[in-house]
Amino acid sequence: MSKKEQNNNLNKNNNNSGDNNFFNNNPLLIFVIFSLVTIFAFKAIFPENQMGGTDSSSGIQAFGQNSNKTIAYSDLKGLLSSGKIEYVGIGNTQIKAVSKVSTGQVVTYTARRVIPDDTLIPELEKNNIAYGGVSEENILADILFGWVLPIFVFFAIWMFIAKRMQKSMGGGSGGILGIGSSKKMINSEKPNVKFDDMAGNKEAKEEVQEVVDFLKSPDRYVRLGAQIPKGVLLVGPPGTGKTLLAKAVAGEADVQFLSVSGSAFIEMFVGVGASRVRDLFEQAKKVAPAIIFIDEIDAIGKSRASGGPMGGNDEREQTLNQLLAEMDGFSTESAPVIVLAATNRPEVLDPALLRPGRFDRQVLVDKPDYEGRIEILNVHIKDVKLGKNVDLKEIAKMTAGLAGADLANIINEAALLAGRANKEEVEPSDFKEAVERQIAGLEKKSRRISPKERKIVAYHESGHALIAEITKGANKVNKVSIVPRGLAALGYTLNTPEENKYLMQKHELIAEVDVLLGGRAAEEVFIGEISTGAGNDLERATGIIKSMATIYGMSDIAGLMVLEKRTNQFLGGQTQKDFSDAMAKDLDDHVKNVLNERYQIVLQSLRDNSIAIEEMTAELLEIEVISGERVREIITKNGGVVFKDEDLHSEAIKPEENNEAIVENISNDNQEANKENM
Predict the structure, then answer these.
(1) What pLDDT is stored for residue 564 in this prediction?
(2) For a FRET experiment, which of 45, 155, 214, 438 has its CA 20 to 30 Å from that of 460?
(3) Active site includes 619?
(4) What is the mean pLDDT of the chain?
(5) In the CATH hierarchy, which fold is given to the domain comprising 53-134?
(6) Which CATH superfamily hosts domain 451-645?
(7) Which is higher by pLDDT, 54 or 311?
(8) Is the pTM of this model over 0.90?
(9) Under a CB-based contact definition with an 8 Å cutoff, are residues 273 and 322 in contact?
(10) Is a pLDDT exceeding 80 seen at residue 222?
(11) Which CATH class for the 370-440 domain?
(12) Choosing from 461, 469, 524, 619, which is the catalytic residue?
């Protein structure tokens, strides 16, 4: 065993001995022992013969008895008659009599009292014998049942309530009720996750690879004078694998992984969060090399300026200040500890947290591209029995824009669907149904729809599908259905892009607006009356036109001026408006005019392709579902022109062609440069 391991074991033993000693684990027993020792010490200092005080039994001790003797009640009465008794103490059950000093040895006689006996008092008075009362209580019992037992009961109740409060607040063994400890909140483990288990996000894995190398062999970097980043911030949308990537770093480096949620630091008591941060870093240093992973760090890392001039959350700010101090205070060379944190709200983090020396590096863990989705699907299907005709490339094309967690859910949903149908293998139809469930919701075939409404929905969806196929820049149709799905959708047109789009041109945005307006326009052209089914379509179309004017500078209404600032981009995006009332009126007029303009164009396109719409609607009413290939076939057959856009996924571009083009361009540039030099 190495010296470092011995020290670690020694520290662990010390911690265990400090946390699990006899006094901490047995408080009630300790109290009982303390009470008994106190009683016996009290009895030793104040014996029973000195405990008389104001008690009536003091008359007996006044004679200084030398011996005690127990006799019968009849014998006692005989002694009284013979005149040998000087004093009698009468109790409830006992009678004590003290003999006269003249008899030689003073004896205290004890007899059990016989009740009723009305002759005792007259006989004492007749013989002129002094008498009084005597206490029969035990001083030990008085102390035990008089004040020790009530205190013990109160202490037991208090300890019970304290334990319940400790569990409810998640406290460990540090501080009063364990409030300041983070041991119960920390999940300490050595993950078995590797980089191979996390498919996609190749660039993100490359960024954290040097962290793994440093934890494996820190001397290689220290020798060169390099300083490894103290902290790495993982940012990205939900479900992209930020937590999995952090575990993979610890698994590849084979180091201890201490994970905790950002919300675990915040409690109702002031100073608890800062105490738990200190405790967390102390634990990490003891088991170094280690990785500290703080999930959802935005819970404690929000900008301190966000509270306004009146101040924000003092407890959260104290926790953040302690985190900043701890990240400045520990050295990665002496105790290799790397802090990883994950968030999907990087814009709200405090600038002091993001500066070099704390979180030196931000790694984007984004939604996977086409190739990444194929890799993720290959990882999750290892234990799934696939049919021979299952093509993961087709699934990857249908799931553009989905995160890794969504893809894993689709694989599991497809397996559940196959199991429900008692199939031996998972077929392509199961995967297609699982994708549709993820995108559009659960299919509700049991929902009864009137023939009139089915006809409206069929024309509505046919309008969407036709405009999507004949418009340049629109996403191609994958499926058209009039089967209800989700909470409110009575039908849907599935037209997902084959690849993630990070940029959209102006004509593509306009094309998306045209597709959204196609359903409403089809109702007006072929039914003659509009319905409420286009509510969501109009809302989305309005949002696109407004964003083009306020954010992207694609209109004359504001020119290049940005009227809205977008925040929270990984969680759907929110906008902050910053324009005058006059601009708001102009903006409203602009949005209204553009929508009306595009609507008229869509109406004319539907009238020109009315035969294709009628055939498509009739087929939908008959079989309820048609594919994208069938939609394109119907349009082409009836004289329509289907716009064929370029294929954007990676397989469409051959690397050889690109390389040849690059070489050719370089050679041409060199020839031109030589001509100029000549």
Answers:
(1) 81
(2) 438
(3) no
(4) 76
(5) 3.30.720
(6) Peptidase M41 (1.20.58.760)
(7) 311
(8) no
(9) yes
(10) no
(11) mainly alpha
(12) 461
